[in-house]
Amino acid sequence: MKNKLLEITAGLCLLIAVACDAGSSKNEEAATADATTEKEEKKEGKKKKDKNPATEGFAVNNTYDLLEMSKMGKKSVPESSGLETSSDGNYWTHPDAGNEAVLYKINQSGELLETMNVQGAKNNDWEDVARGSDGFLYIGDMGNNENTRQDLQILKVDEKAKKVVGTIPFKYADQTEFPPSKQNLNFDVEGFLMHNNAFYLFTKNRGKSDWVKLYKVANQTGASQTVQPLDSLQITTKITAADISPNGRHIALLGEGWVYLFEADTPEGVFKGKKEQIPLGKVGQAEGLVFVNDTDMMISNEAGRLFMLSLKK
């Protein structure tokens, strides 16, 4: 009997031990799961925390589709820093600093149709190109990464003669130091457009704030102009291109992962009108944008990929 009691007691102890082990195991598994979940949530939180969030005051517009059209040949077009239509319905693009003074004519398939060596030009830092209603091309030699340049200019190019026929030098009235302090590095421009015989420049802020400044430069060759900022607006990404729709009603600015779309009567009031932003997703380092009609836009990235951003049917 005594032995039997000992066996029962031992059995109960064993059952208790197993139960305790199971409980501990479950607790450990739960703790591990909680830790993993917490880790994943933190990781997911980092993923969800978009480094390029929507900008306050802008409505997110999801009525556009983005389609990758083609890719330019790296050997034929080493870089695309700006984009504009050509007189024959194709596109001009160009490289920026450190490259030759050339324009590349391409089609929507990314095929190189022509290389224009622009006579009388030097590529200090070409950042964008625009077409005027006068038929001339205008190249914005205004890249200013270090905010030290004092030779900013817009080149007037005869597309048929393939040469510079005039320069439009300018400087910023509010820049007195070259370079300014780090928080005020806001004198680099990669996006400009032309409207009613004037140019509108949008800064790529390299300082410690999100303010984009707007300047107006008159289409006057010869003496240097000193231009004042007309307006400014906070935008969460850096601006790399700009264009205005053919009907003059919409202005588009290209940022990292977004196109910022404005509805305004004039470019001077661009920041005061209706504001939307269109998500692009992963398009690489996009630097060229041009309207192909009143709603749709062609976009190029530095590596030569071409995208069509079209309003959904």
UniProtKB/TrEMBL annotation:
Disordered: annotated span: 26-60
Protein name according to UniProt: Uncharacterized protein
Lineage: Bacteria, Pseudomonadati, Bacteroidota, Cytophagia, Cytophagales
